[in-house]
Amino acid sequence: MRIGLALAALAAALGVAAAQDVPQDIDATIRGAMERTAVEGLAIAVIRDGAVVWTGAYGMTDVEIGSPVTSQTTFQAASLGKVSAAYAVMIVAERGVLSLDAPLKDERLRIAKGCAVPTVAQALSHT
């Protein structure tokens, strides 16, 4: 979880989503964010219009043995996919394409007899 939050904070701090160019002081910004959030290592890419315009690898994969992060390092994403999916659902809901109050209808769902079909909002909040 700490990695996901650190990456989200880092992306916001860099402002890469709206920036025309990769900031010149990106290394200092990343190292400062890593220090503030106690992240030991990360790899990052700036993607613009579907093309990778910059990559970086920082810190260690294993501090005890001094193994550095590289562009080939694989990271565990933990539950980051849940957050990404929820974000995508909220974008679609904001555009009016989907109602959060709509029931989830899928023949693969096995709803117990007598139970209500869950809504999109309930699925997002696990209620």
How does this structure look, described?
This protein has 127 residues and is α+β, with helices and mostly antiparallel strands. Helices cover 36% and strands 17% of the residues. The protein has helices at residues 2-14, 26-37, 80-94, 120-125; strands at 41-48, 51-62, 67-68. A three-stranded antiparallel beta sheet has the order 1-2-3. Strand 1 and strand 2 form a beta hairpin. Helix 1 packs antiparallel against helix 2. The chain is elongated, with a radius of gyration of 19 Å. Mean pLDDT is 81; it is low at 1-9 and 15-19.
Characteristic key phrases:
single chain, 127 residues, alpha+beta, three-stranded antiparallel beta sheet, 4 helices, 3 strands, 17% strand, elongated, disordered N terminus
**Helix residue percentage:** 25-40%
Tell me the total number of β-strands: 3
Basic shape: elongated
> What are the secondary-structure elements, in order, as H or E?
HHEEEHH
What count of helical segments does DSSP give?
4
Task: Describe what is shown at a glance.
The protein is α+β, with helices and mostly antiparallel strands and 127 residues long. The chain is 36% helix and 17% strand.
Topology of helices and strands:
Layout: H1 2-14, H2 26-37, E1 41-48, E2 51-62, E3 67-68, H3 80-94, H4 120-125
Antiparallel strand pairs: 1-2, 2-3
